[in-house]
Amino acid sequence: MLHSIRVRRSQGWQFIPDVRKADPKGFRGLPHISAAPCAAGCEACRDVCSTGAIKLEPFSLDLGLCIFCGECADVCPQDKIKFTNDFKMAATNRADLIRRDGDGAMPPIAVNPAFKKIFGSSLKLRQVSAAGCNGCELELNAAANVNFDMGRWGIDWVASPRHADALVLSGPISVNMAAALRLAWDGMSSPKLVISAGSCAISGAPYQDSPVTDRSFLDAFPPALYIPGCPPHPLTFVNGMLDLLGVGR
Q: Strands, DSSP E only, in the chain?
């Protein structure tokens, strides 16, 4: 018994009381883009970006394409890009994921009154990995663990689409997963919504031009919420969900 108490004491307090005010030290999150102009002719950050997330003239960085490798910040001679540990990056509009010169915090997530009324106290999620690498899937699972505990707001993972209110998509959607994804969606009763989690789900990221992807599902059913990251931090996911439902506002 004494040994168990010593172990528990050494572990400290794992539960995060306030996910809004957490401080994930070392996390590479929301990038700040300096308003200062780039050096003439400098294209280093764009050239090193493997997913084409960075555009020049005018400068922009697309969080939906970004895999948060940090190489753009490393090669920039003027510190144009600086990654912060801000995890509040979710968006309800795809265009809001594009960061430009001098941008501060992300635009506020638009609360859907219908979602808040129906799902504000209970939201069941079905996760579908459509050719994901399991990075996003691991972090999504972590959102329900003792640290982040999204279940305290009635948000839970379920094993069957029949029990789900929202489909949480990860992965770029390969051709051989397109039908399975649609089957999961069709198995859910209305009202229902799609949530894109991770850069691959949002844009295809490194696989955006692959001939073995089929992203037509998202053309038919646009996401209600975009959760950027590679993989997205559980805090990004939980805060995005709470904002979408208007919980704690």
A: 31-33, 54-55, 60-62, 81-83, 98-100, 123-129, 155-157, 166-170, 193-197, 225-227
